[in-house]
């Protein structure tokens, strides 16, 4: 029995009220709290069906991987978010698979695939909840793809920097150029060159461990 | 009142049995049968919310469009298929929009957005059906994106040709090199060069209006 996950679910699970006592019991007994270290793989490497992954603390990154090892980041998950794509085996309509890594030390509550299958088969509200979460991710993936496929790099970098400072709530992004390149599916050299250009233009200030945004207004103009 | 659509729905709508008499009436009065000519835009150009588009005959193509006019084909729809993304306004979780064109003369039954909103809000099974159709498209879009992002061009072209002949059921694809390039988000020159290579290798035979596949086995090897 996992009390920590039970409490977490009852507080942050919007459809908790639609679950019967028996279903809540099932969730309670078939979920587990796990801690992952920075960089650790949560889903994808083993080929197993993980289940629904609820983020209690930390940050997860979801990505796809080519045969040649090229990664494309689809989206990140923060506390309160759910990764349903790690339970794709439960959903007939989802025929692709993704990888999920902990981007920093993270605690997650996982409802295993068997329990999730039972819950979605018997309760249409749970199935709808799962499908809604999935289609939200569809929107995020489309956004990511459009960034990659359509935008010129200055614009993409501006959009990335603005999105990052909005997330962290300050004006400094504590990511190395290597990390930025990885998130943007680009090369470090390309990021480095563009940041130098932005820096010369007085848009940002680049230091060892991060990038400080100096002129949001002009960055927004570039972002379009 | 649209009898043709009513009949079409009752025959090919898998959740028709879950609709009440009143809901069926709503579908009947709020749907319309429209014919589109080859190349005509069905959804996207006007910025309006079209509704759920059911393909009765013909072929539709769904794509996204960059600011610079670059198109990326996401998937095509055949008789019996439904395009829910043309009703994205009805779904809170879908925050992107797509374009839908008739690729040849097509007849579609459209349930308008207002009626669809009412139906999904009041009947959890209809909502479920809409969400499932949407997540199926998520899988197709992921497939298309992986083709574009990860594969080398010979492999992509082989996959494309094999998929096409499987669809049409013969061994000849009646598309110009220009059209193939458009579907593959590539340039005509690139397609032309690779087809010439395939042709020299005895894999295909290229004629004015199409491409005939001669050696499926080796094409499959290239496709991986």
Summarize the structure in words:
The structure is a homodimer of 224-residue chains. In chain A, helix 3 packs across helix 4, helix 5 crosses helix 8 (216-223) and helix 6 packs across helix 7 (188-200). In chain A, the strands form 3 sheets. Chain A has a 4-stranded antiparallel sheet. In chain A, strands 2-7-4-5 form a 4-stranded antiparallel sheet. In chain A, strands 9-11-10 form a 3-stranded antiparallel sheet. Chain A has helices at residues 3-12, 21-29, 113-122, 124-150, 153-168, 177-183, 188-200, 216-223, and strands spanning 31-36, 41-43, 52-57, 60-65, 71-77, 82-83, 99-102, 106-111, 172-173, 204-206, 211-213. Chain A has 2 domains: 3-149, Jelly Rolls, CATH 2.60.120.10; 152-223, Arc Repressor Mutant, subunit A. In chain A, strand 4 (60-65) and strand 5 form a beta hairpin. The first copy, chain A, has 8 helices and 11 strands. The longest helix of chain A has 27 residues, at 124-150. With 224 residues, the first copy, chain A, is of the alpha+beta class. Helix content of chain A is 45%, strand content 21%. The model of chain A has no long low-confidence stretch (mean pLDDT 88). At the A-B interface, helix 4 of A face helix 4 of B.
């Amino acid at each position: 029995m996992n009390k920590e996950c039970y409490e977490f679910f009852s507080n942050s699970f919007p459809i908790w009220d639609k679950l019967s006592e028996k279903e809540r019991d099932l969730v309670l007994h078939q979920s587990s709290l796990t801690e992952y270290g920075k960089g650790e793989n949560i889903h994808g490497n083993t080929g197993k069906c993980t289940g629904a992954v609820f983020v209690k603390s930390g940050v997860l990154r979801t990505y796809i991987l080519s045969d040649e090892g090229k990664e494309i980041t689809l989206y990140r998950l923060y506390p309160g978010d759910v990764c349903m794509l790690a339970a794709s085996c439960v959903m007939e309509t989802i025929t692709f698979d993704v990888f999920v890594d902990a981007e920093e030390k993270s605690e997650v509550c996982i409802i295993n695939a068997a329990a999730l299958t039972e819950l979605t088969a018997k309760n249409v509200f749970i199935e709808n909840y799962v499908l809604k979460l999935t289609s939200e991710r569809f929107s995020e993936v489309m956004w990511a793809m459009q960034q990659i496929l359509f935008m010129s790099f200055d614009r993409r970098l501006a959009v990335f920097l603005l999105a990052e400072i909005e997330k962290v709530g300050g004006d400094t992004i504590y990511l190395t150029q290597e990390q930025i390149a990885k998130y943007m599916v680009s090369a470090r050299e390309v990021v480095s060159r563009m940041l130098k250009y932005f820096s010369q233009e007085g848009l940002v200030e680049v230091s060892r461990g991060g990038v400080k945004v100096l002129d949001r207004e002009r960055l927004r103009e570039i972002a379009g």
